[in-house]
UniProtKB/TrEMBL annotation:
PANTHER family: UBIQUITIN-CONJUGATING ENZYME E2. InterPro entries: Ub_conjugating_enzyme, UBC, UBQ-conjugating_enzyme/RWD. This is UBC core domain-containing protein. SMART domains: UBCc (SM00212). It comes from the Eukaryota. PROSITE patterns: UBC_2. Residues 37-183 form the UBC core domain.
Length: 216
């Protein structure tokens, strides 16, 4: 079933056609509230995502709720997270773009700006949000904190200070976390996201997805 649904999706070189192809798979209930305004907004976001595809990310949109996306993010080179691959989800509410989307890391990680429940503490989700920002920019900021933490928005300022003052020790601890918790490849994540082994259940973990932007 998943393979059949993926047939005919145009290549990334034609983002408008690809976005229309994805949009055509939805009915009037494309969003939690059935909002055609939000559905149109999300169509634009999908087009922008393909036009500004980040080579270190694979993005998938739910076929049953196009406001819910999954993202597979490769750790930045030359960072303590470089050997890891991280899964996160992003949910776009009916009040978007007046208010920011919600994003959570599913893969556990050690980071001063990410809670144990995956909440991302970054100003783009609060005081720095503006309605002109796009989802691909939000994801770029999520990627950016794996390179440089946001000290002002650290979950615990003391732990952030320790993280930096004992940089080598902190780096080794992060690398241990990555090896144990983030060692799955992008291909493995892709298979998990696209595989439908049972009838889909409308939860955040078992929605069937379509690829929006991915490498390989």
């Amino acid at each position: 079933m998943a393979r059949q649904l993926l047939q005919g999706i145009p290549a990334a070189s034609n983002p408008d056609a690809s976005a229309r192809s994805i949009f055509a798979r939805y009915n009037n209930s494309t969003t939690p509230g059935g909002s055609r305004r939000l559905a149109s907004q999300l169509l634009d976001e999908i087009k922008a995502m393909r036009q500004h595809h980040h080579p270190m990310m694979d993005v998938y949109v739910s076929q049953t709720n196009m406001a819910f996306w999954k993202v597979v993010m490769q750790g930045p080179p030359d960072s303590p997270y470089s050997r890891g691959t991280f899964l996160l989800w992003i949910e776009i509410g009916e009040d978007f773009p007046r208010r920011p989307p919600t994003a959570r890391f599913v893969t556990s990680m050690l980071h001063p700006n990410i809670t144990k429940h995956g909440r991302i503490c970054h100003p783009i989700f609060s005081r720095e949000w503006t309605p002109t920002l796009r989802i691909h920019q939000v994801l770029e900021h999520c990627y950016g904190i794996l390179i440089l933490l946001e000290a002002r928005d650290a979950i615990d300022p003391l732990s952030a200070l320790t993280f930096w003052s004992k940089a080598e020790e902190g780096k080794r601890e992060v690398e241990r976390y990555v090896v144990h918790l983030a060692s799955r490849s992008r291909a493995q994540h892709k298979n998990d996201i696209l595989r439908i082994s049972t009838p889909p259940i409308l939860t955040k973990t078992e929605l069937p997805f379509l690829p929006v932007a991915r490498t390989g």
